[in-house]
Specification:
With 259 residues, the protein is an alpha/beta fold. Helices cover 47% and strands 14% of the residues.
């Protein structure tokens, strides 16, 4: 399917690895030029070089922590005039409700709620003036069904979801859509870290932890960054203009809900 976005420009955050990289690659395959951001220079430059070579699109890189004021300024300077924004940030560490203090919550809110909001506020006005834009926020399945050990993520990402719910309805008439993708477990570094934590807590191997987790997913496996990226690219396409303010699960059926 021709997504109708060849020649558009996208900012994809945290796109050197994992789900962000999957989104960047899928957009590049559709002919979209990219601004790629991540904190690690080496992984970012390697990912960008591979995309340039494979898809022939223009790729600019900004190695910066987008959750900081200076990092966000650098990213926004490079992303001036983008048509597509994909927000993404690693989740806060797991733990127990009694482990976290105010500073932990502030860090989670900065990364997983306030930074996406700041990026949207900075980039959407120009999209609205042009009459076309797409925003996709990568959140988590925990927005639909909380994961007890991920209380920091549950709180911050649900806050972002509430903000998007109202904002999406205010900008849709200007041709700008905002939607959220809610990943379950995918084969990424984040999954490796979570599986490692389970393995340590339960005294089992990481492989055994992975097998047990996969068995709890109706699809019987972890998701891939490629299929996640394809879903993101569709939401960014010209065919998705009537999808507004939605929270779309990509979790292999793991969230047991009717609606």
């Amino acid at each position: 399917m021709d997504l109708g976005i060849k020649g558009k420009k996208a900012l994809v955050c945290a796109s050197s690895k994992g789900l962000g990289l999957g989104c960047a690659r899928a957009l590049a395959a559709a002919g979209v030029d990219l601004v790629m951001n991540a904190r690690g220079v080496d992984a970012l430059e390697a990912a960008a070089a591979a995309i340039r070579a494979e898809f022939g699109v223009a790729v600019e890189t900004v190695a910066a922590d987008v959750t900081t004021d200076n990092g966000r300024t650098a990213v926004l300077n490079a992303a001036s005039g983008v048509d597509i924004l994909v927000t993404n940030a690693g989740g806060p560490p797991p733990g127990l409700w009694s482990d976290w203090d105010r500073d932990d919550f502030i860090r989670a809110l900065d990364a997983n709620m306030l930074t996406p909001i700041a990026l949207m506020k900075a980039l959407m006005p120009a999209m609205m003036e042009r009459g076309w834009g797409r925003v996709v926020n990568i959140t988590s399945q925990s927005v639909k069904a909380p994961i007890p050990q991920l209380g920091l993520s549950n709180a911050a990402r649900t806050g972002l979801t509430g903000y998007v719910a109202g904002t999406a309805r205010q900008v849709a008439a200007k041709g700008v859509t905002i939607n959220n993708l809610l990943p379950g477990i995918h084969a990424t570094d984040r999954a490796d870290a979570l599986d490692g934590g389970v393995a340590k807590a339960q005294g089992i191997s990481v492989e055994e932890a992975r097998i047990r987790r996969a068995a709890s997913i109706p699809a019987g496996r972890y998701g891939t960054s490629e299929e996640f990226g394809t879903a993101c690219a569709f939401l960014c396409s010209t065919h998705a203009g009537f999808i507004v303010g939605q929270n779309i699960l990509l979790d292999g059926g793991a969230t047991n809900a009717t609606i």
